[in-house]
UniProtKB/TrEMBL annotation:
Residues 27-263 form the ABC transmembrane type-2 domain. This is Transport permease protein. GO terms for biological process: response to antibiotic. The keyword rRNA processing does not apply. The keyword Membrane applies. It is a multi-pass membrane protein. Its main location: membrane.
Length: 266
């Protein structure tokens, strides 16, 4: 068996083990589905009336999708930190298995959770008035971009989980950086209304551009009121969103693997 085939086999076993752990910790799955539903209902019905009504709901869903899969990276952080704290990683290291299997298995299992979350979010969006108005190919491309971004964010979470000294630190570190990155974006409100420094950051923020790419492909409004955004990232949202996800992977996959080797060699 080739090294690549062995890595895929070992990673799939670790991924299955992680998914089976949900049976013993169902609250993990509950939080990954209940939180986005709460955000949809809160923004669609509590804030939506003053932000654009029905048009805002269609604008909102693309941002909620991206925010949700970004926040799912916190499960990667906590899962890896928990395995390190309990000595599970040491047990894996003693087995004749691929060194990357632990990380790839964790990020793959969390990708499966993101798929389930997106399905639930899509159903919730349809209930509040969201519709896919683009072609089937564009819709499939949008979901591919969303899951690619989710996979990239999981590797960010893997690196954070490996550098966290305890599960408690991981719980804070896994979410602390996500709040400013998510909310200083056009996930919920247009970036054009922000002060100049925040607007510049928001326009180039991968969360903003990925949300705009989804809106464009779904045929949803890029902005509730006013003209469409004219920044370079917004004009090339699909290309930039794919490129930014690949750049994140290119940076954090090697960092996570290098950190895992250091941790496993102790």
């Amino acid at each position: 068996m080739s090294a690549l085939a062995a890595s895929i086999r070992d990673s799939s076993v670790v991924a299955w083990r992680n998914l089976m752990n949900i049976k013993r910790n169902p609250d993990w799955l509950l939080s990954s589905t209940a939180q986005p539903i709460m955000f949809v209902l809160l923004f669609a019905y509590v804030f939506g009336g003053s932000l654009g009504g029905e048009a805002y709901r269609e604008f909102l869903i693309g941002g909620i999708f991206v925010q949700t899969v970004a926040f799912n990276s916190a499960f990667t952080v906590i899962g890896l930190a928990n395995d390190l704290n309990k000595g599970i990683v040491d047990r894996f290291r003693s087995l004749p298995m691929s060194r990357i299997a632990v990380l790839l298995g964790r990020t793959s299992s969390d990708l499966v959770i993101s798929v389930l979350t997106v399905v639930i979010m899509s159903a919730c969006g349809l209930l509040v008035g969201w519709r896919i108005r683009g072609s089937l190919f564009e819709a499939l491309l949008a979901f591919f971009i969303l899951l690619l971004f989710s996979f990239a964010m999981s590797w960010v979470g893997a690196f954070i989980g490996l550098i966290s000294r305890s599960v408690e630190v991981a719980q804070s570190a896994g979410l602390l950086w996500l709040f400013p990155v998510t909310f200083v974006s056009s996930a919920f409100v247009p970036a054009e209304a922000m002060p100049a420094p925040l607007r510049a950051f928001a326009e180039w923020n991968p969360i903003t551009v990925t949300a705009d790419a989804l809106r464009q492909l779904y045929g949803n409004p890029l902005r509730v009121t006013g003209p469409p955004p004219d920044s370079w990232p917004a004009q090339h949202a699909v290309l930039y969103s794919i490129g930014s996800a690949l750049v994140i992977l290119a940076i954090f996959m090697p960092l996570a693997v290098a950190r895992y080797r250091r941790v496993a060699s102790r």
